[in-house]
Queue: 4 jobs
Job 1
Amino acid sequence: VPLVRRRLRAAGRRREREALAGRVVALCETAGGELRAGGQPGHALAYAARRTEALGPEEARVLAAVGFGGDVPEALRAAARREGAEGLAGLAACWQVAVDRGAGLADGLDRLEAALREQHERREGLRAELAGAWATVAVLAALPVAGIGMGAALGAEPLRVMLHTPAGGACLLLGGALEAAGLWWAARIVRGGGDAE
């Protein structure tokens, strides 16, 4: 149960991280659209931030920096510290270059949006490729239970042997340890492939 709970929490954090990354992409897209429509950078960022909710708890700080002439790139970098919001660091860099060098912010946002979308698609493709490996790990986990079920169906009474005889108990402990080690190793290999993204 603790392992399943841990796994479910990790999956929930991953979904939240991916949703936030999607909102950052939408923020770049919306702000870029506003800039191309003739809006001022501060107004475009404020509009996009309110519409996409990508800045989260840092939204007030970023909007205050935009409205009162504060350090917008630093406020965006602070917002980028959350998991999934790393793309805001790219937005901070685009803003910094646009302010310091007079470069077009809309062009930078377009490139940033394209790069973030490509990164998201690459992550999704890798996750799809790893789905088969995770299915293999699940099958490996189910094999001992299936073996016990087949033995019981054949009348061999595997549970009685494992739980009431010394040799069966030793086999149960050794088999359980080997099963746990095998699952840990297989999951580690698959996670390693996922971390390579």
Job 2
Amino acid sequence: MIYAKTPLTPEIRAAASRAWGAEGEGERLYGGEESAAYRLGGHVLRVGPAGRGVAESEWCHAVARHAAVTLPEAVAPLATDGGATVVVVDGRPISCWPYVEGSWPDSDVPAQREAGARLLARLHRALAGLRPGPRPVPAFQESGLYGDPHPDAADLADPVLDRWLAGFHAGHPVRHPLHGDYYTGNTLATDDGRIVAVLDWDETFVGAPELELAAAALEWGDDLIGPSKEFVAAYHEEGGTAAPLDEESLAQLVRHKLRREYAYFRKAAASGVRHDEEDLEYHRARVELFHRLRP
């Protein structure tokens, strides 16, 4: 996995101090493919990619702040005195978040996988009533979601999947905000396995909750073999908003996610990212899974 190497510049430090009173050493935190996170005492600064618009970030942050009202694990951004959650420094959106102690949970541990599923169900319930209006810029996961072609994933063209997606969404009208990237790396757990934080809301968008349930079941299952049925069962037991999924629906929604992963990999490579052999092998395995899960 290749993470952003954006530095914490003196200009960013100064802006963070003025906007949020954030001061500290500036420890680079692990993770972040597009945004780099730095700990400054009790704050975390997220330095976004150059060119990402303020409106897009503020829209995503509003979803996080709504979730945090009723979901303690939802980590929301801090506002400036003027009410904004983003300041721009050298063309990059900068946001400030409370620091939460913890580490990535282990989805291979059944209890942590179940905890992740139950937290997702509660998160969906917390977001079910929010109507935030159109996202200023469509999320990456939205491309092709309703059966339209994937121009950035032509090698995985599948008209049958496209027609299935269009039909699925016609028959599943429930829409509400989704986290958009719910995997272990965007959560934190304590040493005893309790999940205490949901992080990184950059990919949030409004969609069918079944889509996120399927994607999360893959990420919290064996991500080279297929989605976890135990994850899905725990989610429903906890009262999540997604409707029950049969095996075909679960597989096809996972395949949408895998096709978007393929497009993201190609986008990163085109931008100059150099993937190592481990990344390439993982990419090949995910493409193989896309084909193997075809109903």
Job 3
Amino acid sequence: MVAAIRINQTGGPEVLELRTVDGAAPGPGEVWLEQDAIGVNFLDVTQRKGAAPLPLPGGLGLEGAGRVVRVGAGVSNVAEGDRVAYATGPLGAYASARLFPAERLVKLPDSLSSEDAAAVLFKGITAQYLLKSTYPVGPGTTLLLYGVAGGLGSIMAQWAKHLGAFVIGVVSRPSSVDKARTLGCDEVLVFDPATLAAEVARITDGKKVDVVYDPIGRVSFEASLDSLRPRGLMVPFGASSGAPAPVEMATLNSKGSLFITRPSLAAHTATHAEYQERAADVLAAVSAGIITPRIWGRYALADAARAHADLENGRSSGAIILTP
């Protein structure tokens, strides 16, 4: 039997229910995967609350790591006993074991534990496409990055600094300033929407930044736009404070012919080749010490609701994983 979190309706953390379900034999192109660790991401919270589409009733979670136990017909990229991880759908990662499409699995090196893999792969691929595809960060780039103390932000800060960028980090509270500096931020601001853009202008001698990475949404959006140089790029890739209001085209013009994009993990891992290429880059960055998995909290699968509450309420400072 398999322990799995199921959700019948959207709402608060209490809608996450632990159930016992039957296992299943893998079909063509599938494997049966026994999981050692499951990654918890803010997208899970967004889906649980109903702000992002979620098929109901059903499972939750997009990231996990474990070992292949059985393989279905036609599977050739992995074999029984392989240690693997994944960072995309189908939903249902919150489980002790599950079926999964073989082509979406990533083989793990012996040097990387399942827990670290579940903490870094989803966030690492997100950081990879944001820093290398959405905007090609490199020497001379000046960027503004929110949530530096969190699981994704800490990876992005390390990687952006390695790529040669000048990183202005934004944290939610003064106690996170020192951590942001240890992650490589050149300057750190405690978020205040009334003063942030002016502080960015001061730090950059009025030039402002080339790109803003903003997962906050409604409360930060205007300050982010005002922090951009002419023809700068606004990258809202989350909405933890709610979705920002629609933007008038005239606003982008008046603020300096700004660009704006709303990227997603799905669009940047749509093909097998692209997904594996980005995952390989993440694993190489971990191996080289460019980015470091940072697990803030480990929770039993049965405590998924508590993990969600801690993430949603801003109590976490790093990655959260569940262990079956």
Job 4
Amino acid sequence: MKAPRVTLEQWRTLQAVVDNDGFAQAADVLHRSQSSVSYTVARMQEQLGVPLLRIDGRKAVLTEAGDVLLRRSRQLVKQASQLEDLAHHMEQGWEAEVRLVVDAAYPNARLVRALTAFMPQSRGCRVRLREEVLSGVEDVINEGTADLAISSLNILGSLGTELHTVEFIAVAHPDHPLHRLQRVVTAEDLETQMQVVIRDSGRQQPKDVGWLGAEQRWTVGSLATAATFVSSGLGFAWLPRHLIERELMAGSLKPLLLDQGGSRNPLFYLYSNKNKPLGPATQILVDLIQRFDAVPLNAALTAPLPSA
């Protein structure tokens, strides 16, 4: 790649001339001599081979080419300034990135609110969000490839902070044979039907969670796929209520009337990497996740951001 001939400082000088309506005013703002500012702009025009300014009376006015280049340069200078700010924050211990792994059953609405509130406080820190199922979260945090984790499992050797429960309900399509029984459904009834289960994404010690007594089971890779299968009439499943509200309202899914176990409410926990101290950006994100986890789920996307 060819090295640029024009420096960021030269682009800043041109911006100052245009924004302050002249060379003399730009010189005052930049604390430089007027001749130095004039020479800088003249040298830019030579290097680029394109006239950037023309004199209209006593005022310097952008040419058509100068207008296009100046607009592009503003973003360039802004990004360079942000890069310098990020380097400064990193020197002070501010993280360049926070890695967050979340069980796919945890409500996205709460995460959206937390991450939206984090953005203006992030100082350029990126968030790398990863979704796993069940012990897949445990594997990632134990491997040290995540800074924070949200899981419903008790992760061995880690102390988690309690978040809210997530309600899973047993559902099937309204025309499913279990609904056509028109009575309370028993475990014996479930055993004769196909159950759709979600595969644990963990590699070390995958876990089977929930009732798995059906003779026939189909295993899928995501909650969304399970919801699609079941709402199409293929089997029954326990699914997070928040994920299937639309299907429940539309009538493509209907809760099963079980004699017991029709719903379960696992408690979720927020874990941090036990081998790495929390940096300032990670701590801010921890606080925001906890704060928005306390917001009722049906208000998670509509409630105003709480004050810091």
